[in-house]
């Protein structure tokens, strides 16, 4: 085995990943805060008022990053799940499990902010538009994944069942997206559709990208925190966990 | 020849056993003993290839059972607590289906004979649901008289059986073992069989 | 092959023995489609408009209802263990079980649908399209449903969890299935929708049994 | 700079409910999530410590 | 009384232990209401029109789904026998079980319904009426459902048979429940429908536990 | 004092037994014997009042049990094959619930002690689903140590138990009987108990 591969496997073990993640987390929080504050500054103070939508459009600065992250996290989750199924590494399942709630949160935020945007723009909280509908279904997929894992109490089994579900889902997400899109364009309902995003000013685009980075860093930081908690829960009875300074604590 | 090497089993966070080594050759039988919760059922399921061991390996004639796959399953008959007896079907239907699943030819007459041998005469056409606890077990055990398998793995085959049935089953196992077969059993009762290795876990 | 046939035959026999099994999925379908006129009031134009959607949603729910009993009884009484221990490959036997599920739940729906379509005032052409769509769509529902049933096996509260896992995955079938009839009604022609359904079915026939078998192996451990 | 006064900023050109409804919930959830995760971690650490304590007591007996 | 509380407490504990139990009935409700637009097309006017019907049918199905598990696990593992052998009167204990069923399935639906109403573009007044109707209607669904669950107990294929027995009995609840919202939307006022629902509920509270207990005794023999 | 008069039981079209007469008084126990399918389980369920007999009547201190209702149930503890043990709940929760259902006060400490007595120490908080066959039975039997009932009706209480548990249970039954209780048992194994009437069906 080459050196690189050995290294890789080393970090694939929860025991060595745990301290590494611990070291990385503050950095991601710092980056998230940095990008977040910059993004918010641009969002509220640099980006000009939209001539059509007034100030309401500022929701875009969280709506779009949340929507992007919700989709991206699903892909990453499915990647880890597949890896876990193929290589039988313990860490992969934990990663997938750690990502799911954050993904669901992002999906929820994109729905929520979208609804709060839709009300002033379209006069209704919800329309059955292709993009909205598929975002809703993505949210359901996350919930399904979380519910399945929560319902299985053997951790290894939960990982592998979840992995199969995530993989089935990842095959289905594009199918669902296109089917919904096709369904919707064929009908051309009476509602406003948002096929054309407003052509964006450069500052808006920058603000959005920076906010997206902030969301990204946030997701990584939270997922790492959660994976550390999961590692502790699952490996509670191993020697290395018992030897951790935070476990030995002040009692010894 | 079934050989287990350094088998270990972990359930939840509890290590049930580890470093288990044994070999059972043709014409031998093994009595797995242990308290309630010692891990007998878990061991038998591992031996049947239904669950992977936490460590160690199982060899059938020197080959790992994982690699043998179908060839191992063809030689194996595993009967657990409820092995595939459908409550809605009659004993006869249950037995015929089991035979087809095992890919062994079984005529209806032969099936009826096996059932009669297990004291189910007159109940062949009654849905299993109506049978008593012991009669249900007998339907399950009737497969022993039908299926040609070298290795029998039986989890508490004597529960719920009355005295006559216990004797009959013992005779069947003796016959199997003397014919060059292998049997692995658990039981909390003393087994009325001659010889036999004992494995304590 | 013999073993697969045995599995199918036994499952059909069980369905017959449980008598109500086949008919109740069917009756559920009938009752749900008949509830709508009750919930909505008897406006023929409105009813005709919602007919394809309602019939498809009802078909979907009727299929889903029986899913929790696709593998659960076999799991509980050890049949699944014995299937896994059979010399025949598990994937094949499972395909047999899925086929039996379709024959007992999907097929009766397909046969019943035209009658319900009449209730909603659909014409012969639309009924034909609907039957074709259901003929392609119901096996798809059984195949996808089997994955959900296998994943929730041995999981407590599984019966309802299945719907959570499976319903989102049913969306494409629903859209193309109901879409086919609607497209026909609006004069666009249903060929596009039907061929998409067929493509989905082909995909599912390949992958679903594999995913189901993998999930079952996990449940068995 | 877009805003003349703080009041104007909070009014968001009449879209206050929607803008703050979105940003507020977003901020709330994004603060709550790490706190919940941290709590989960401290819970498990606490029970681990308790177990350890019990073990050492057992050994002393 | 103590025993009744123990029954309720244990059933809630079981629901929590099975974790997904509560949430999945809820999500089933959410998903089914979201499926209809996918089957019907995204036209807001049409959707608004069918909203009360769809939400009620979905609530009805969501309640019904869990019914087969209301008594079946207790029957299978002997709990029901022990309930019958308890010194406390069986009818009271059964009422406790029904109450627990409503708390875990009906109540969450009532709380979720307004959000779904928004998806269908209902206004605040209509939402209020809908919640009121559901608050009266969902206990009714649990009570009637319990009779069906008890009657089909131990009957093979019972899971699906329940729907057959229970759905026709649900029709009045559906008609008055959906009718209340529709009456409100068309400006007629919902009071009449709501008081009819309340009357049905009062009737059911008296007779359903009794009928359920009688049916359970038969199943136990 | 439990008296049965001319009891008969019919299942399907099969008459399992008829004209059964016996009486068991305080401080006595009855061993119901018979082959598989003879009707032992059916008899016990009839005695518990769960199923009506085809003919005859059952008296508790001279009163028909149907008329006694609650008063009879309060004195009775019936344990069948799966009596109300929930797989999702832990042994402790199961025991506490059973006590509440019986309307007898049971503190958590007492429940833990009863479970420990039945060898479930360390498993009090593990869902019953994970337990072994014998451990599941023990959860069920722990009620015997907790509930104050005059009449015990136990259907094959010794199945799946290991030797130690069988001894412990026997001691418990002896204690119950010597304290003036009544016990009615079935078992295919020989019961290691002194005295006792035998009823063959
Ligand atoms: C509940 C309602 C809504 C949901 C679920 C939703 C969902 C989404 C999703 C999933 C995306 C990412 C799509 C992609 O990048 O391909 C997105 C992007 C976007 N949404 Fe929404 N949306 C909603 C409401 C709205 C409203 C009301 C508006 C504005 C009137 C809006 C404007 C946008 C814009 C401008 C983008 C960025 C488009 C792009 O980058 O290509 N959304 N939304
Ligand atoms: N998740 C878990 N956590 C801890 N212990 C577990 C878990 N799952 C199973 N166990 C334990 O594993 C053991 C399983 O044993 P198994 O069923 O193999 O016993 P057995 O020897 O067959 O016993 P019996 O004689 O009672 O049939 C039990 O002691 C059980 O308590
Ligand atoms: N519908 C039916 N038709 C015919 N026979 C039936 C029917 N239902 C039950 N039986 C018979 O009634 C008997 C039930 O016996 P029961 O369960 O009481 O036996 P048991 O003495 O407890 O036996 P075991 O020792 O096996 O537990 C069985 O012999 C069964 O075959
Ligand atoms: Mg065992
Ligand atoms: Mg019996």
Task: Please render the helix and strand layout as text.
The complex is a heterohexamer, with one copy of chain A (252 residues), two copies of chain B (201 residues), two copies of chain C (221 residues) and one copy of chain D (61 residues).
Chain A: H1 3-11, H2 14-46, H3 60-87, H4 90-122, H5 130-151, H6 155-187, H7 202-234, H8 239-242, H9 245-248
Helix pairs in contact in A: 2-7, 3-4, 3-5, 3-6, 3-7, 4-5, 4-6, 4-7, 5-6
Chain B: E1 2-11, E2 14-24, E3 29-33, H1 40-47, E4 55-60, E5 63-64, H2 65-68, H3 70-75, E6 76-79, H4 91-101, H5 108-117, H6 133-141, E7 151-154, H7 163-178, E8 182-186, E9 197-200
Helix pairs in contact in B: 4-5
Chain C: H1 2-17, H2 20-40, H3 44-76, H4 79-85, H5 90-119, H6 124-151, H7 158-185, H8 191-220
Helix pairs in contact in C: 1-5, 2-3, 2-5, 3-5, 3-6, 3-7, 5-6, 5-8, 6-7, 6-8, 7-8
The complex binds protoporphyrin IX containing FE, adenosine-5'-triphosphate (2 copies) and magnesium ion (MG) (2 copies).
Residues 40-41, 155 of chain B line the site of one magnesium ion.
Quick overview of this protein structure:
The complex is a heterohexamer, with one copy of chain A (252 residues), two copies of chain B (201 residues), two copies of chain C (221 residues) and one copy of chain D (61 residues). Chain C has helices spanning 2-17, 20-40, 44-76, 79-85, 90-119, 124-151, 158-185, 191-220.
What does this structure look like?
The complex is a heterohexamer, with 1 copy of chain A (252 residues), 2 copies of chain B (201 residues), 2 copies of chain C (221 residues) and 1 copy of chain D (61 residues). By secondary structure, chain A is mostly helical. Chain A has helices spanning 3-11, 14-46, 60-87, 90-122, 130-151, 155-187, 202-234, 239-242, 245-248. Chain B is of the alpha/beta class. Chain B folds into 2 domains: 1-75 and 149-201, P-loop containing nucleotide triphosphate hydrolases (Rossmann fold), CATH 3.40.50.300; 83-148. Helices cover 32% and strands 25% of the residues of chain B. Chain B is built from 7 helices and 9 strands, in the order βββαββααβαααβαββ. Chain B is globular and about 50 Å long. Chain B starts with a strand and ends with a strand. Chain C has 8 helices and no strands. Chain C has helices at residues 2-17, 20-40, 44-76, 79-85, 90-119, 124-151, 158-185, 191-220. Chain C starts with a helix and ends with a helix. In chain D, 84% of the residues lie in helices and 0% in strands. Chain D has 2 helices and no strands. Chains in contact: A-C, A-D, A-E, B-C, B-F, C-E, E-F. The interface between A and E is medium-sized, with 22 and 20 residues. Protoporphyrin IX containing FE binds at residues 60, 63-64, 67-68, 110-111, 114-115, 117-118, 121, 126, 131-132, 135, 194, 197 of chain A.
């Amino acid at each position: 085995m080459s050196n690189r591969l050995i290294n890789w496997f080393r970090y694939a073990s929860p025991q060595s990943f745990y301290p590494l993640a611990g070291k990385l987390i503050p950095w991601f929080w710092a980056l998230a805060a940095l990008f977040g504050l910059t993004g918010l500054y641009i969002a509220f103070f640099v980006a000009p008022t939209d001539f059509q939508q007034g100030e309401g459009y500022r929701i875009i600065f969280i709506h779009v990053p949340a929507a992007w992250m919700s989709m991206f996290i699903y892909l990453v989750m499915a990647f880890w799940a597949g890896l876990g199924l193929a290589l039988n590494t313990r860490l992969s399942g934990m990663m997938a499990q750690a990502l799911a709630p954050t993904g669901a949160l992002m999906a929820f935020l994109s729905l929520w902010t979208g609804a709060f945007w839709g009300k002033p723009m379209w006069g209704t909280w919800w329309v059955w538009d292709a993009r909205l509908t598929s975002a809703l279904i993505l949210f359901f997929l996350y919930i399904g994944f979380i519910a399945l894992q929560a319902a299985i109490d053997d951790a290894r089994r939960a990982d592998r069942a979840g992995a199969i579900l995530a993989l089935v889902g990842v095959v289905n997400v594009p199918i669902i997206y296109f089917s919904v899109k096709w369904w919707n364009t064929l009908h051309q309902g009476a509602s406003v559709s948002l096929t054309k995003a407003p052509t964006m000013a450069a500052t808006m685009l920058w603000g959005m990208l920076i906010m997206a980075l902030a969301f990204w860093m946030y997701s990584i930081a939270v997922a790492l925190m959660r994976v550390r908690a999961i590692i502790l829960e699952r490996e509670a009875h191993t020697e290395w966990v018992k030897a951790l300074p935070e476990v030995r604590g002040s009692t010894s | 020849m079934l050989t287990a090497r350094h088998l270990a089993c972990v359930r939840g966070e509890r290590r049930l056993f580890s470093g288990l080594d044994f070999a059972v050759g043709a014409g031998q039988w093994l009595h797995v003993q242990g308290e309630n919760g010692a891990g007998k059922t878990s061991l038998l399921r591992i031996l049947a290839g239904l669950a992977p061991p936490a460590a160690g390996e199982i060899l059938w004639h020197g080959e790992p059972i994982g690699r043998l796959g179908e060839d191992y399953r063809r030689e194996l008959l595993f009967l657990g607590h409820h092995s595939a007896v459908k409550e809605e079907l009659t004993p006869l239907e249950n037995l015929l289906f089991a035979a087809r699943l095992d890919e062994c030819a079984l005529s209806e007459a032969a099936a009826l004979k096996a059932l009669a041998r297990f004291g189910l005469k007159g109940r062949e056409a009654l849905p299993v649901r109506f049978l008593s606890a012991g009669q249900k077990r007998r339907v399950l055990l009737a497969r022993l008289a039908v299926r040609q398998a070298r290795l029998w793995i039986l989890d508490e085959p004597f529960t719920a059986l009355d005295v006559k049935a216990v004797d009959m089953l013992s005779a069947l196992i003796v016959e199997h073992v003397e014919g060059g077969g292998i049997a692995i059993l658990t039981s909390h009762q003393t087994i009325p069989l001659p010889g036999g290795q004992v494995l304590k876990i | 092959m013999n073993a697969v046939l045995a599995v199918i035959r036994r499952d059909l026999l069980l369905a017959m023995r449980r008598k109500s099994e086949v008919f109740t999925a069917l009756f559920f379908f009938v009752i749900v489609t008949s509830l709508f006129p009750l919930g909505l009031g008897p406006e023929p134009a409105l009813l005709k408009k919602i007919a394809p959607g309602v019939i498809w949603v009802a078909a979907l729910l009727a299929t889903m209802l029986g899913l929790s009993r696709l593998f659960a009884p076999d799991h509980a009484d050890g049949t699944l263990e014995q299937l896994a221990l059979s010399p025949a490959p598990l994937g094949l036997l499972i395909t047999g079980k899925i086929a039996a599920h379709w024959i007992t739940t999907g097929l009766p729906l397909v046969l019943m649908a035209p009658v319900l379509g009449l209730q909603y005032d659909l014409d012969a052409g639309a009924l034909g399209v609907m039957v074709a769509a259901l003929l392609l769509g119901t096996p798809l529902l059984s195949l996808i449903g089997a994955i959900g049933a296998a994943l929730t096996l041995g999981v407590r509260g599984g019966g309802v969890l299945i719907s959570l896992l499976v319903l989102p995955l049913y969306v494409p079938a629903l859209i193309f299935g109901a879409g086919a009839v609607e497209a026909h009604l609006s004069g666009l022609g249903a060929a596009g929708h039907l061929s998409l359904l067929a493509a989905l079915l082909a995909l599912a026939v390949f992958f679903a049994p594999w995913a189901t078998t993998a999930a079952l192996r996990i449940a068995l451990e | 700079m877009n805003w003349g006064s703080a009041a104007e900023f909070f009014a968001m050109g009449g879209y206050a409910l929607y803008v703050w409804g979105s940003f507020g919930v977003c901020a709330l959830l994004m603060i709550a999530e790490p706190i919940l995760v941290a709590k989960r971690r401290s819970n498990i650490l606490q029970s681990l410590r308790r177990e350890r304590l019990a073990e050492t007591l057992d050994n002393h007996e």
